[in-house]
Amino acid sequence: MLRHAAAALLVTFSLGLPAFAADTVPPIAYKERTLANGLKVYSSVDRTTPNVTVQVWYGVGSKDDPVGRSGFAHLFEHMMFKATRDMPSETIDRMTEDVGGINNASTYDDFTNYYEVVPANHLQRLLWVESQRLGSLVVDEAVFKSERDVVKEELRQSVLSQPYGRLFYLYVPQASYTTHPYKRPGIGSIEELDAATIDDVRAFHAAYYRPDNAALIVVGNFDERQFDAWVDTYFAGIKRPAEPMKQVTALEPPRTQPGVFKGYGPNVPLPAVLMTWHAPDAASADAPALTVLDAVLSSGKSSRLYNSLVYEQQVATEVYSDASLPQQPGMVMIGAILASGKTVADGEQALLAQVKAMRETAPTADELSEAKNELIAGKLRERETIDGRAFALGYALRTAGDASLANRELAELQAVTAADVQRVAQKYLTDNGRMTILYQPETARPKGEVDGAPKPPVVASTKYVGPVVTLAPEGQRAAPPPVGEPVIPVLPKPAEKTLANGLKVIVAKSSDLPLVSAELTLRTGAGADPQGLAGAMGMTAGMLTEGTKTRSAQQIASESEALGAILSSGGGQESSAVGLNVMPEKLPAAMAIMADVARNPAFAQEELDRQRSQTLDGLSVAYQSPGQLAGFAAAPVIFSGTPFGHVATGTPASLPKITTGDLAKLHTAYFRPDNAILVLTGDITPEHGFALAEKAFGDWKAPAGPAPVRVAVKPSAKPRAVVIDLPGTGQAAVTVAKAAISRGDPAYYPGIVTNSVLGGGYSARLNQEIRIKRGLSYGANSRLSAMRTTGLFRASAQTKNESAPQVLDLIVAELTRLVQTPAGAEELKARKSVLIGGFGRELATTDGLASILGNLALYDLPLTEVGAYTGKVEAVSASQVQDFAKKNLDPAAVSVIVAGDAKAFEAELKSRRPDLEVVPAAELDLDAVSLKKTGK
Questions:
Q1: Model pTM greater than 0.90?
Q2: Which of 239, 274, 303 is the last residue of a domain?
Q3: Predicted confidence (pLDDT) per residue in 330-358, tens digit
Q4: What are phi and psi of 533, to 5 degrees?
Q5: 691 and 731 share a domain?
């Protein structure tokens, strides 16, 4: 996984700011014990939350996949959500998602972790669930085959249909290791997944899913004595197998000379260059220095790679680095996706220069301080949530073998010196130890050169002779424990006032964790783009952080990141925003920078040229991703003829037309205090927040004349069926869309409940039909986006190209069922809980609360909606859901957009939609009503 993706500008002047003290981040207070069967138990009580997270971290990951069966650990991650002796398939979702919680899992090289967040009164039930998964999982043929199909679709979606999927998932591990099983892709391969048998799967489960290979981690609101008793009840009786744990003993030999690996892929718009070196394990004394080195290279917008490759030389559009230090010898990586017109040789030369500089020049005091501040602020943000704290403990345990490292690592990072960073650069980033990976489009492959990817070994299936668990007959199943008494959440109490200049200010104290979010929202977005200049307002907002009248782009990045702050700006369909997240003691200084970028942008020609070039390069990548391509097409198809009828981020045709004068004109017209909302949340009182707002923005004068008129959008476009033909892509993205209601519509709450029933989660109808029952997609969902005067409904799924017509049929069938049949009482209760639980989790973070309050103000709704949300959702009836579907989700009124390899599905789609329009991706023009370039 990549910790930093894009980074930033080298510090060019001295700030004199010290790094934060290690105790800036409160330590995670936890207790630990080990049961007689070897299960490790970690618990941490937090009385401020109404929730609890239950996580189980198993010491089995992709490195433990059997030979010839890569992807097994990941496949088993999927199987663990199915049946146990006493739980039919999908019961886990009923006991998590359906009560307002979430569940998920992830597979790394060294471990697989399963996690849930649920209301605290469901803790006992979740402990029972996890004991069932550990002690009595059902591994049967039907579930195995179904989940194998889902994993194949995940592989197609994440790897084969993404321009750089093959590079990061397949080629980086393959090139970087020769012997250690880290060389194999964690997601596996179609061939190896197909070769697996049920015996292989059962043997894998028996080998690794055992109590002495598991760690239970629980964080949240609970009674510790009661918790200990429940753990003993549900887990102590699970037997530890007599066989010793299987261990990976392979040793990766040191690399003694540089190597070059060449990889190719279809739909690769820009070449990429990556370099990797072997590194130590997570427990190494060199790990902290390598982590700081990684941050110096690519963290934030003031790092070495960004400054040199993206900002100054403009040789790259994105840069990366990663110090991935797992259980066993790890890897350091740097890389770049190149800018248009640049070659792999250009990228290689630029990256090597930065490696040489890291070896020859120690970081400056400011670089070192800034890197540490960013790392420590990042740890603080991780600990804002209960699941983030549990993850920190689990990750330290499973990589370094010691959960307490989650607390010690902060002091260890602070102890790193500039000399340490230079020393590890010299020790590990050697010329002889370097592997260079060159990734280019298939068209660049030399004639006669064949694909050198290793063929999966043919391995005989395991013969499993152990016990096999089956689902007990209904009358013989153990009943889950009862639900406890609910914990009543404490809702924030926002306060608001309007400054003399018209700026609305909202403040809500929501946490004692030392973190504050500030969000300045302008009531104008892409709807104000001048005709023919799609993306102009978005570019205006995005350029705010790229230089002011007194600060350069480099200074803005350096000053804000030296404070440990995240400062960002951007625009959407009907709003633009500047966002800030920072520790309270740094808030005054950070808000001064925030006010400067919002009020005094320079819009320098050089910066516009640079940002435009990067955006165009980004679009060239996005246009090769079927999911993104279908998403871009939704606005011009659904909102044609209105101010929303274009792509908010701009297009390859519109962006080159935008001038600095256009940006300045838009800023003058719309960036004014009486058109803005400032929200502050977190560890801040209303009095302090109002005082800071007055200091930073009180002298911001509104221009003469009334505030800008906000656009009213009334869609009237007829339904269309469009295929965007993207030859060679690994999947098709199927989207069904139509215009929908506004946020202020009385039907808003029935609308979001209806969407929750249809596609608002794993257990919703679309995912049930498309993924769970048929394995046709990694996930199917829908979204209702209600805006000020209109809205957008979208249902979507990605699938293998030939299945696109079937997936479309399933989406339409579910829309029809919504209209024809009322939802049942239990289903309705569960889908309401999903909404209420998600709302509560969003309220729990400073950024989430700021977003909720800012949106209420944007749509002229009272802040009391925060407290009224749950009651309004609960009040929605089945008849209201059916009525909403009849009025707003008529299948005959939807537009269909499919992006993929058309030769696999065009004929079948045409039989369903005779009005089908086929647009080759090479001829796509999202600024045109026809979606085709002129003359085509």
A1: yes
A2: 239
A3: 999 999 999 999 999 999 999 999 999 99
A4: -120, 55
A5: no
